[in-house]
Specification:
By secondary structure, the chain is mainly beta. The protein has 2 helices and 8 strands, in the order βαβββββαββ. It has helices at 25-34, 165-187; strands at residues 2-8, 45-60, 65-77, 113-117, 132-146, 149-162, 195-202, 220-227. The strands form 3 sheets. The protein has a 4-stranded mixed sheet with strand order 1-3-2-4, with no helix packed on it. The chain has a two-stranded antiparallel sheet with strand order 5-6.
Length: 229
């Protein structure tokens, strides 16, 4: 039986992908009697891993970190969850609770679990980021040593480029407009009532003011009146 697990970074749901028609009680009891929740399949397990980038949530340039939303698809074959459909009413697929199934873990060495990356990266569900433009997504199959055990790993490289018009629209152009209005206001004739108006603006970063995310909130226009006679 081929198992598939789906999950994403923000909100994830784990399940065994299957479909059944008719009664499957007998089949479920048969499979669970053969399957050991705490034991991996015998021999080397080939795990096929696919990651789909959905959205770039943000980049912290000071901490050199990127936060992304992704969909992950893991596939592997467990011989203990196989059966002859002819013996169970021609049922070819069935549902089994995830809590009853052994799930692959990174704690196993490469002699037990070997990761295989999906070379084609789908961007079907990807949505653009306002500040960063996605250039490419690549993956490299590698291994590393963890407490004396060689572990198979996949390393994803996400290349992005800052959009040149981002700060032009959110900072430079509004600043130019406000400065122009301020200069004009200095030479404008005051009304007979002596009322004066000054126009200014302020912009703050998202979250920590010192965080160099480059994400500016909406320009706030503040009008100050000085009723001087």
């Amino acid at each position: 039986m081929q198992l598939r697990r789906h999950w994403c970074k923000i909100a994830f749901h784990d399940y065994i992908c299957a479909e059944a028609r008719g009664s499957s009680k007998k089949l479920t009891e048969y499979l669970l009697s053969r399957h050991n929740l705490n034991a991996p399949p015998d021999g080397l397990l080939d795990l096929h891993y696919e990651m789909e980038l959905v959205h770039i949530l943000g980049i912290d340039e000071l901490k050199q970190t990127m936060t992304v939303l992704v969909y992950v698809d893991e596939k592997w074959t467990d011989p203990s969850l196989s059966w002859d459909p002819a013996l169970f009413g021609n049922i070819s697929k069935t549902w089994i609770p995830l809590s009853k199934i052994w799930i692959a873990s990174w704690t196993y060495g490469k002699e037990k679990i070997r990761l295989h990356a999906h070379t084609e990266h789908s961007l079907e569900h990807y949505t653009d980021n306002e500040e960063w433009r996605l250039l490419k997504v690549s993956v490299v199959e590698d291994e590393y040593e963890h407490e004396g055990i060689n572990v198979s790993e996949l390393r994803y490289d996400v290349s992005v480029k800052r959009r040149p018009l981002f700060y032009m629209v959110t900072l430079t152009f509004p600043s130019y407009v406000m400065c122009a209005i301020s200069v004009v206001g200095l030479f404008a004739r005051f009304s007979t009532t002596g009322e004066r108006e000054l126009v200014g603006y302020s912009g703050t970063g998202e979250g920590d003011p010192g965080k160099a995310t480059g994400e500016m909130r909406a320009i706030r226009k503040c009008i100050f009146k000085d009723n001087t006679y």
